[in-house]
């Protein structure tokens, strides 16, 4: 998978690229294709701000994390994207579970 990583304030070292790619490899275990993932690294004061966006069929995932340690921010970002991807993957199951229940508005009219 090709991940676009950009930053205007720091150089993207091989170690930073490897950490980001390893976090996205964990997301690939869900068997959902990520479309054009992009990671942006910024520095605000003493903290690093890491933002990521990735498309999935029908939606776009976006997360951001901030920490004094760049690697901790990348890990936090990965956890946030993982939660969003889990929610996206389980959405059809939640919709199917609610399909047989009548709407609350219909019951209140009777």
Beta-strand portion reads 25-35%
Distance between the termini: 55 Å
Main pleated-sheet profile? 4 strands, mixed
Q: How is the largest sheet built, in terms of strand order? A: 1-2-3-4
What ranges have pLDDT less than 50 throughout 5 or more consecutive residues? none
Mean pLDDT: 86
Helix content: 40-55%
Task: Quickly describe the structure.
It contains three helices and four strands; from the N terminus they run E-H-E-E-E-H-H. It is an alpha+beta fold. It holds the Pfam family Ribosomal_S30AE.
Outline the secondary-structure elements.
Blueprint: E1 4-7, H1 14-28, E2 35-44, E3 47-56, E4 59-67, H2 70-98, H3 104-109
Helix pairs in contact: 1-2
Protein name: Ribosome-associated translation inhibitor RaiA
Pfam families: Ribosomal_S30AE (PF02482)
Organism: Oceanimonas smirnovii
Description:
This is Ribosome-associated translation inhibitor RaiA. InterPro entries: RHF-like (IPR036567), RHF/RaiA (IPR003489). The protein is an alpha+beta fold. The chain has helices spanning 14-28, 70-98, 104-109, and strands at 4-7, 35-44, 47-56, 59-67. Helix content is 45%, strand content 30%. β1, α1 and β2 (35-44) form a beta-alpha-beta unit.
